[in-house]
Design brief:
The chain is built from five helices and no strands. It has 140 residues and is mostly helical. It has one domain. α1 (2-49) packs antiparallel against α2, α2 (55-73) crosses α4 (97-109) and α2 (55-73) packs across α5 (115-132). The longest helix has 48 residues, at 2-49.
């Protein structure tokens, strides 16, 4: 009986430690990714806003956002860290005709292209809307 209780306590402790280690790893990986790629992403976004970006640059920009969205959706990256750093990139790019053209042309070839980006931007839309209206939101 005592050994069964010790095994159960050991399993619970292991699970808690594993969960916390996964959370810390997600933070660490997210921060590392942001540090490595943030400058390039914002430069590409500036070019899109200035309407100087070509389709190759827009595709590269969307691919980078797709990678982050996939990793957020798979819980490998921390949702809040990515949101706090890049929320604008998940709500505004599809307001630019050049981005819409690249987005649609890539999705014609394969409907799953940029699917994670679209999924994350839709998930964050309520939160962004609430924050823009001065409301506090717990929407993830």
């Amino acid at each position: 009986m005592l050994s069964a209780a010790a095994i159960i306590i050991g399993i619970i402790t292991f699970y808690i430690k594993l969960t916390k280690d996964s959370e810390v790893a997600a933070y660490r990986e997210t921060i590392g990714y942001i540090d490595r790629h943030s400058k390039e992403i914002w430069e590409q976004w500036d070019a899109i806003q200035d309407k100087t970006a070509d389709s190759k640059q827009i595709r590269k920009f969307l691919n980078r956002l797709e990678q982050m969205a996939l990793l957020v959706n798979k819980k490998a990256f921390d949702n809040d860290l990515v949101y706090n750093s890049f929320w604008v990139l998940y709500c505004q790019p599809l307001n630019y005709e050049a981005v819409i053209e690249v987005f649609k042309s890539q999705r014609i070839k394969d409907k799953f292209v940029f699917a994670e980006y679209k999924k994350l931007s839709e998930a964050w839309a309520l939160r962004i809307h609430a924050e823009e209206n001065g409301e506090v939101s717990n929407v993830q």
